[in-house]
Amino acid sequence: MSKMITEQNLRLLIDTLVKEGARVVGPRQAGAMTLYEPLTKGDDLVLDQLPRRSAKEAFFPVCETILSFERKEGKTTVQDVDVCTVPETVLIGARPCDAAAPGILDAVFSWDYKDEFFLERRRRTTIIGLACTKADDACFCTAVGLSPAEMKGADLFLTPLEGGGYACEAPTEKGERLMARHPQLFDDAGNAKPLPLAEPAVEKLDLQKIKAWLDGNFESPLWYGIADRCAGCGACAFLCPACHCFDINDEGTADKGERRKHWDACGFGKFTNHASGHNPRDIQNKRYRNRIMHKFKYYDDKFGQTLCTGCGRCIRHCPVGIDIYAVIEEINKMGARDQGPGTGKD
Ligand code: SF4
Ligand code: SF4
Question: Per the domain annotation, does 72 fall within a domain?
Fold first, then answer.
């Protein structure tokens, strides 16, 4: 039988989980911004704002120590960080564009090298997704195959109801277990209707057509026109739920320190700088081209998925106004022209 939860009980669920010792992460007010951050009580939860940054930090922190080292009297000892210390976590209030992203990233973090820091957090995290009842001009989830009601990636999914409260669906066993552990907080759904959801004002794009155009246009003049504006600030990658590049650095001294993973971005000038000084992506348009190629071609070539959930953050916050939706919409049109009428999928 489908269930519902009142807003009061949703906040009580957070209080209960915190008391049980779980780390609960969700949208909360942080100064002038809303961010996904640890919640200490139910009243912290902000339900009507898309957080400025994505929820990927719950699985992939900006910076994390992976080992520490110390050299004493000529002998070096290395201490690995134990991933079993990762706390049980509930990520609550994740919008569909954020809830879908960790599942897309599973492919790369469990590919040739198993990144247990990411994977252990994935295993120990339950995601409570939340349908969107408002979209802004930058949202385009529907263009890349998701939707404001998309449950992909969510263990439990909440849909706002007319008259208050949320319909609850549990697409996974993790979600069912969470509901089963707190039965007093959930009621039978009844006849309440869902609130109208927010449809972004965009056309659905043909991702296969876009990929086919990218397959044949590594040297297109398109890259010069767009990318010469890019300031290489990396904001788009850092805000993105699906960007996942990182660097590994040793911090400290030769005698004592830590090895850390840090987020990196293909927009940065030194991202591909070789030790020799040669840089195969020596100008910004090559870096911006890589951003588009990685999201809409390379990741698909390798893992059969698109590396963009249409959250719109990189559009909202690009300091020079580069609009990734406009770029791929243009490529979509060029792909349609290249293939001629009636040859593409709808
Ligand atoms: S946010 Fe804009 S300027 Fe900064 S790297 Fe991304 S596309 Fe370039
Ligand atoms: S590329 Fe831009 S719109 Fe797509 S998921 Fe990343 S930040 Fe969101």
Answer: yes
